[in-house]
Design brief:
The chain is of the alpha/beta class. 59% of the residues lie in helices and 6% in strands. The protein starts with 27 loop residues before the first helix and ends with a helix.
């Protein structure tokens, strides 16, 4: 069987800042796709949200009429790895799975052919929840393909615009996606990927010293031409600075806000990122929990990770408030430092006692006993060091 032609990205997502320009596509299905994208890329009032859902429903019905609703194996479906949203809290998925179990699947997922299976256009939450029911298949409709290629990075860029306007991305997801898009748009700064937050912060500090930082609030939503003129006027020192600011402004994001509130999420511990993915933990709580570092806890890396992960799960499972999270972090820092202080005092006393022992005049059997005791203690210390 010949491989289906991939679908063009422009048929799936409307470009950022051009939500009123619906592509001239033939057929009702293509019109509906464009209209859905247009609606998704705006902040919607209640009535408009109903209109969006109606459009999605109509698209599903049109696809059903063309190719029918099919039962597709879940294992043949693949999420778009460039989907900006990466955080799907397990509690929400479990609740959704219960709903699917009780009421069944009302709306088919929307797919298009991809490799030997299908890529998800709409319905990733249903796809993630289905195995918890447990189901092995989902009702699905297939988007017919016509264009020659699909650019997943372009889809991510356009989906990011949609998600930003809808305000449904976790700050960690937004941070990772923005870094990816900055590099995708400007491959010449690939080597600077890990330094992008630092470069942005340094640039903003210079802009602040030049008393131009207040301009950002206005320039963020200004027309592209005005943004370009402003970028030229501030005389940036590095090409990377220009590319970073330009990308953020293209998405109508205030670079100062991104530097202060979003990019710091990239520096949180990996174990905390795992908890965010599982529970969707609020960013402000994550920042508090990130204070539980090995250095501040006076613990080895492995033990500090365990303490931090347990604390994060407690915050998530018990739904602790931000104040309760701060109190928990403070309590853990105090208690572990107190424990370490006691242990340190004991160790210092033991060392001083050992240093003051005189072995002069000891019998050979006494010296041998001390030697064995010291060797056993050294082996114990070596084992402890390996676990730190």
């Amino acid at each position: 069987m010949p491989r289906p032609k991939p679908i063009g990205a422009s048929q799936i997502f409307a470009e950022a800042g051009q939500t009123q320009k619906v592509h001239q596509l033939s057929g009702r299905v293509e019109e509906l796709e464009a209209e859905i994208v247009r609606l998704k890329s705006q902040e919607l009032a209640s009535q408009e949200k109903l209109e969006l859902e109606a459009k999605i429903q109509e698209l599903t019905q049109q696809l059903s009429a063309q190719g029918g609703v099919q039962e597709i194996e879940i294992m043949r479906m693949e999420r778009n790895i460039f989907q900006p949203r990466q955080t799907f809290p397990q509690s929400e998925l479990r609740a959704f799975a219960e709903l699917l179990k009780e009421e069944g699947q009302h709306t088919p997922v929307i797919l298009f052919p991809w490799n030997d299976g299908y890529l998800i256009f709409d319905g990733e939450r249903r796809w993630r929840a289905a195995p918890l029911v447990p189901w092995t298949t989902l009702k699905a409709v297939i988007i017919p393909l016509e264009s020659e290629e699909i650019n997943l990075q372009e889809i991510q860029s356009q989906a990011l615009s949609t998600s930003i306007h809808r305000k449904d991305l976790h700050p960690l997801d937004l941070a990772e996606c923005l870094i990816n898009q900055i590099v995708f748009r400007n491959p010449e700064i690939e080597e600077e990927r890990d330094r992008i937050p630092t470069i942005l912060n340094t640039c903003l500090q210079r802009i602040k010293r030049n008393k131009r930082l207040s301009d950002l609030a206005i320039i963020t939503t200004a027309p592209r031409e005005e943004q370009k003129e402003w970028l030229e006027s501030i005389e940036l020192k590095q090409v990377a600075e220009l590319k970073i600011l330009q990308t953020l402004l293209d998405y109508q994001l205030n670079p100062s806000s991104i530097s202060t509130n979003i990019f710091p999420m990239l520096a949180i511990a990996n174990d905390l990122k795992d908890v965010v993915r599982e529970f969707g933990l609020d960013a402000s709580k994550v920042r508090e929990l990130n204070k539980l570092s090995a250095e501040k806890l006076n613990l080895g890396t492995a033990k500090a990770t365990k303490v931090r992960t347990q604390a994060a799960r407690k915050v998530a499972v018990e739904n602790l408030s931000l104040k309760e999270t701060r109190d928990l972090v403070s309590e853990l820092l105090t208690s572990h430092n107190a424990e370490q202080q006691v242990a340190y005092s004991q160790s210092q006393r033991a060392i001083k006692t050992l240093q003051t022992i005189s072995v002069e005049g000891w019998q050979p059997d006494e010296i041998q006993s001390l030697k064995q005791a010291l060797e056993a203690k050294l082996a114990e210390l070596e084992q402890i060091s390996k676990s730190l």
